[in-house]
Amino acid sequence: MTDFAKQLADYRLTTAEILYRLPDHPAVLQSYLWQDLDLAPQFPVLRKFLDFWEREIEGKLYQVRVASAGLIKPAEIRANAALLTLH
Predict the structure, then answer these.
(1) Can you tell me the distance from the alpha carbon of 32 to that of 18, in angstroms, rounded to the nearest whole number?
(2) Has residue 10 got a pLDDT over 90?
(3) What is d(CA 7, CA 37) in angstroms, rounded to the nearest whole number?
């Protein structure tokens, strides 16, 4: 599915700020920004990424903040009635 088709299917631009602890220095927090098209409010793509993180990456998750915004709204899409070509 293309990004435009996803947006028409109500996928939204989702940004997550992930704070995690460094494995060698647990008192230090590191920040990682993740961004992709995802479905709110379940966020299946983000959940898949966070599952991968917990399984494969040594940095323990501390906090995840999520923001989501629709890029295409129904009133912004219109079909053209005619196509004109000027030479």
Answers:
(1) 5
(2) no
(3) 8
Q: Where are the domains of the chain?
A: 3-75
Rounded Cα distance, 47 and 39, in Å: 11
Q: What is the pLDDT of residues 19-77, one digit of tens each?
A: 999 989 999 999 999 999 999 899 999 999 999 999 999 999 999 999 998 876 666 66
Q: What are phi and psi of 29, to 5 degrees?
A: -100, 140
Cα-based distances in Å from 24 to 27, 38, 56, 61: 9, 32, 16, 14
Using CA of residue 55, residue 59, residue 65, residue 66, what is the dihedral sign? negative
Residues in the chain: 87
Place of tokens 């959940």: 47
- Give how far the C-alpha of residue 14 lies from the chain's centroid of Cα atoms, to the nearest Å: 3
